[in-house]
């Protein structure tokens, strides 16, 4: 883990800490949204689903505020070294956090549609995919908070599981729809949820890759997965 030395310039240090705080809040909010969206789907909780959709505006505001702090730091301080990596990490990671929020809102909207009528319920694979997406997001956010590159590196390997589960759900829903034509729209809604959850995993991986860059100064994006 990386422990930076505080700046002697207290105003500059306060600006760095404000950016760190906003980035952390954005990550926690995105994590909470995907966690609640999955729970709303599994528990058929319409009120919770609507709460996730409403929370998306708060996450958008946090993203804008974080971007603003980054721009001001670049313009006023011309940061270098670890500070520049922090600003770069924040500018990129906050986009993935906002996308996770968007996907959570989409899942919540789908759950409202699915749970409005009886029929096909979430399969074990859908539940496993939801749990995995929440877990990866939580671990990515925590690795950023802790500046833990080792934990961040482990996330990419876990993303394979989400890819496989997404494919399994897609196959399940296609076969189910063939035998139950009246459930076609419901099956398609589950494939949409599954695809959103898989994308959440991708964004968690992106955040983790930026943590490695933040801590070690190494760019690991677009590198092949370890064997």
Task: Describe the protein's architecture and organization.
The structure is a single chain. By secondary structure, this protein is mainly alpha-helical. The chain has a single domain, classed as Phosphate transport system protein phou homolog 2, domain 2 (Methane Monooxygenase Hydroxylase, Chain G, domain 1), CATH 1.20.58. The longest helix is centred in the middle third of the chain and has 35 residues. The two termini are 25 Å apart.
Outline, from the CA principal axes?
elongated
Helix/strand/pairing category: mainly alpha
- Low-confidence residue ranges: none
- CATH topology annotation: Methane Monooxygenase Hydroxylase, Chain G, domain 1
* Overall mean pLDDT: 92
* β-sheet strand percentage: under 5%
CATH superfamily: Phosphate transport system protein phou homolog 2, domain 2
Task: Lay out the secondary structure.
Blueprint: H1 10-43, H2 46-77, H3 81-115, H4 124-146, H5 149-179, H6 184-216
What structural keywords apply?
Methane Monooxygenase Hydroxylase, Chain G, domain 1; mainly alpha; elongated; 227 residues; 83% helix; single chain
What's a concise summary of this model?
The protein has 227 residues and is an all-alpha fold.
């Amino acid at each position: 883990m990386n422990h930076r030395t505080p700046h002697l310039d207290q105003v500059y240090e306060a600006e760095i800490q404000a950016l760190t705080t906003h980035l952390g809040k954005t990550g926690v909010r995105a994590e909470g949204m995907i966690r609640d969206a999955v729970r709303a789907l599994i528990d058929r909780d319409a009120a919770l689903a609507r709460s996730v959709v409403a929370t998306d505006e708060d996450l958008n505001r946090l993203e804008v505020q974080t971007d603003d702090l980054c721009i001001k730091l670049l313009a006023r301080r011309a940061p270098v070294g670890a500070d520049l990596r922090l600003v770069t990490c924040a500018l990129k990671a906050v986009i993935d956090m906002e996308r996770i929020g968007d996907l959570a809102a989409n899942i919540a909207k789908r759950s409202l549609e699915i749970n409005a009528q009886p029929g096909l319920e979430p399969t074990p694979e859908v539940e496993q995919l939801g749990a995995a997406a929440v877990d990866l997001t939580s671990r990515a956010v925590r690795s950023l908070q802790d500046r833990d590159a080792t934990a961040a590196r482990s996330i990419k390997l876990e993303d394979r599981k989400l890819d496989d589960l997404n494919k399994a759900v897609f196959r399940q829903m296609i076969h189910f729809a063939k035998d139950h034509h009246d459930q076609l729209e419901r099956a398609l809604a589950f494939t949409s949820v599954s695809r959103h959850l898989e994308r959440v995993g991708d964004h968690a991986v992106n955040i983790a890759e930026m943590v490695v860059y933040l801590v070690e100064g190494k760019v690991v994006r677009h590198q092949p997965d370890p064997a």
